[in-house]
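Q: Hi! First time doing this. I have a protein sequence and I read that you can turn it into a structure. Is that right? Here it is:
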Amino acid sequence: MLRNGLEPWHLLVLAIVVIVLFGSKKLPDSARALGKSMRILKSEAKAMKDEGDGATPPVEPTAVRTAADTSQPRAAAEPPAAAG
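A: Yes, that's right. Below is the predicted 3D structure, encoded as structure tokens:
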């Protein structure tokens, strides 16, 4: 029944319908957006695959030190002096 369901003339009719519905001005923008989406999907799938393999250990965040932190070591916390 659906032995040769997608023949070349089917694709031609489909292309004509898409052009009529969306207009020729919006097709390049739509194709560009579809390409971006496919690249994002591909990179996310690759990241998930790499994460699942365990090939690379997870990166732990490092502490960010400012110039004030490195200039002098911190003194032990002292209780505030009583006013007297």
